[in-house]
Amino acid sequence: MHCAVMADVHSNLEALEAVLKDIEKREASDIIFLGDAVGYGPDPNKCIDVLRDACRVLIAGNHDRAATCQADIEYFNEYAKAAVLWTREELSEENKGFIEALPLTAEMKDDGVLLVHSTPKEPEAWHYLLTLWDAEINFNYFDQRICMLGHSHQPFVIERLPSGEMVTQRKEISLGSSERYILNAGSVGQSRDRDPRACYMMVDGEKVEFVRVAYDIGKTQKKMHDSGLPLPLIERLARGT
After folding, report:
1. The whole model's pTM is what?
2. Inter-residue contact 199 to 212 (CB < 8 Å)
3. Coil, strand, or helix at residue 237?
4. Euclidean distance between CA atoms 72 and 37, whole angstroms
5. 181 in helix, strand or coil?
6. Residues 64 and 99: beta-carbon distance below 8 Å
7. Model confidence over 167-217: pLDDT tens digits?
8. Residue ranges with strand state E in the chain
9. Is 44 exposed, middle or buried (0-12, 13-18, 19+ CB in 10 A)?
């Protein structure tokens, strides 16, 4: 593999374009997208258009499903819910149809990789994988050596050793041949690890690297303000929370 892996763009065009510019410099052979093209941000249609052209594989996230009325939004907080309702009104019919048709999971068989937005266990339930206990459960729900996911907006690698011991890494790592892995690509459009820069993951052979890219946060925030999106969603971009 020599691919870039992105997740959780959330209608943030400035972040997406900055990441794609960085990916171009690294000459990735493929770009993989792990869901949530829309939600929260001000440019749902443009982001979908860009992702359609740029990515070889795309899957759906919970905000994509919510924007096409395929997922319940009752469990969303009030700000996320308001953004989903706004997005539903903004999406073109063509783009609604496109994200509506995206699968919840995909497999890269030659590389032994499962792709999912949330978790291998009940991907349609949108669970979060946040702890080693969550990982222990989910390793039992895929047979591939590697599972790549997003959803939590937290970039990390969980490595399961042949002994069963698990180790968490948050920086560059070389993948072993006998170990199994859960890789979270972080978030392009709404970081939540106190680093406001966009985040994506480069997988180059057996090396995994998390890449951070600065973008014009102020421009995105102004668009959100002009669109009437909730203030807490606007402010959190600069904090990376």
Report:
1. 0.96
2. yes
3. helix
4. 17
5. strand
6. yes
7. 998 888 999 989 999 999 999 999 999 999 999 999 998 899 999 999 999
8. 2-6, 30-33, 57-58, 105-108, 113-116, 146-149, 156-160, 166-169, 173-174, 180-184, 198-204, 207-213
9. buried
Q: How far is residue 63's CA from residue 61's CA, in Å, rounded to a whole number?
A: 6
Count of other CB atoms within 10 angstroms of residue 154: 18
Look at the chain and count its residues. Answer: 241
3-class DSSP state for residue 88? Answer: helix
- The answer to whether residues 185 and 129 touch, using CB atoms and an 8 Å cutoff, is no
Token reading at 220: 């995105």
**Alpha-carbon gap, residue 75 to 175, rounded angstroms:** 36
pLDDT in tens, 52-84: 999 999 999 999 999 999 999 999 999 999 999
> Of 225, 213, 218, nearest to 42 (Cα)?
225
Contact 13, 43 (CB under 8 A): yes
Task: Round to whole Å and give the CA distance between 89 and 128.
Answer: 28
Name the residue with tokens 């400035």: 14
DSSP 218: H
Backbone angles phi, psi at 199, to 5 degrees: -130, 140
Distance CA(66)–CA(45), nearest Å, equals 15
Q: Are 217 and 238 in contact (CB under 8 A)?
A: yes
The answer to whether 43 touches 223, Cβ cutoff 8 Å, is yes
Radius of gyration from C-alpha coordinates of the chain: 17
Q: Which residues contact 77 (CB under 8 A, 6 or more apart)?
A: none
Distance CA 76, CA 63 (A): 10
